[in-house]
């Protein structure tokens, strides 16, 4: 089968011809329609999970995927052959990922029935970004009418978070680098757009909201950038960073809830997303669909932080 993999840590991804996996007890074999690219995919290539989980080389990349159940192993009860599923395919050993025509996934992994209102190819864009956005908003726990600043809003997580926050009645402020992106974010529900190329974000937000904002979701900033943004949050507000640069003592001193945030993938969260998508409440922000042969270049762009929306690798029809 065709797969995008690396032969060792830090290697450049390449398309390889690898054996199709055999179903094992407690797992499902999925014929992968598409895989979604996330920064965590190349971080695994760099060894972020080394020492935490065993690895198998050649290491097939990819966490997010969607496809059709081809076979079920002994003891599997949640899924049947022919089910359309999506979710996070990551499991032990690392290296049996979603960037392949077929993937083995434990039944207990964060996978669920895919939304029926969108193609499987599109569903592959949802799992990590969608669950991150939904769980982050749950943790921020803001109330209708309150203000939320999303820094790094034009990527996959930010695109989902903007829609979900607007749906909750929040006044969403987003950061962009070009006016065209601002127009797209307004279509997704942003009430205010800050172009960080024109002037520092903190300066612009402070001028527009002198009384402060209620919440912050920072998806990209360094420690200095997050601290500057946190200064905009009212005492007693909430602030999260997915870059793990928060200083708990500084937040606690101002009674700001939150800090460093990590997604906890779960079937229950995926099922919530499925319902929101099938009810038409959430658009899935697919920026481009590429072939496996184009994946190495797309991964290189992701390393540079140049993602907009989501990039999907189409693995099979």
Structure description:
It contains ten helices and 17 strands. The model has no long low-confidence stretch (mean pLDDT 95). The strands form three sheets. Strands 3, 5, 6, 8, 9, 16 and 17 form a seven-stranded mixed β-sheet that branches. The protein has a six-stranded parallel β-sheet with strand order 12-11-10-13-14-15, with helices on both faces. Strand 13, helix 7 and strand 14 form a beta-alpha-beta unit. The relative contact order is 0.16. With 317 residues, it is of the alpha/beta class. The protein folds into two domains: 2-125 and 285-314, Medium-chain alcohol dehydrogenases, catalytic domain (Quinone Oxidoreductase, Chain A, domain 1, Alpha-Beta Complex), CATH 3.90.180; 129-260, NAD(P)-binding Rossmann-like Domain (Rossmann fold).
């Amino acid at each position: 089968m065709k797969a995008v993999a690396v032969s060792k840590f830090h290697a450049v991804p390449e398309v390889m011809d690898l054996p199709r996996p055999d179903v094992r007890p407690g797992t499902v074999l999925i014929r992968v329609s598409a895989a979604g690219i996330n920064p965590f995919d190349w971080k695994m290539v760099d060894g972020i999970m080394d020492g935490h989980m065993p690895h198998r080389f050649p290491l097939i990349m990819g966490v997010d995927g969607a496809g059709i159940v081809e076979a079920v192993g002994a003891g599997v009860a949640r899924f049947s052959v022919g089910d359309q599923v999506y979710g996070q395919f990551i499991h032990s050993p690392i290296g049996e990922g979603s960037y392949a025509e077929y993937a083995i996934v434990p039944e207990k992994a964060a996978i669920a029935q895919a939304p029926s209102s969108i193609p499987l190819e599109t569903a592959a864009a949802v799992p990590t970004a969608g669950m991150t956005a939904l769980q982050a908003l749950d943790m921020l726990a803001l109330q209708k009418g309150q203000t939320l600043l999303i820094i790094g809003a034009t990527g996959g997580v930010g695109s989902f978070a903007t829609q979900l926050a607007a749906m909750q009645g929040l006044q969403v402020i987003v950061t962009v680098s070009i006016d065209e992106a601002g127009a797209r974010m307004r279509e997704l529900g942003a009430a205010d757009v800050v172009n960080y190329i024109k002037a520092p974000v903190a300066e612009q937000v402070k001028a527009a909201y002198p009384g402060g904002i209620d919440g912050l979701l920072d998806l990209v900033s360094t420690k200095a950038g997050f601290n500057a943004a946190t200064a905009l949050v009212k005492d007693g507000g909430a602030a999260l960073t997915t870059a793990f640069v928060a200083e708990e003592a500084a937040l606690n001193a101002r009674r700001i809830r939150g800090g460093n945030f990590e997604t906890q993938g779960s079937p229950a969260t995926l099922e919530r997303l499925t319902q929101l998508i099938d009810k038409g409440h959430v658009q899935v922000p697919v920026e481009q669909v590429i072939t496996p042969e184009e994946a190495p270049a797309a991964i290189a762009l992701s390393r540079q932080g140049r993602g907009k929306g989501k990039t999907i690798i189409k693995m099979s029809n």
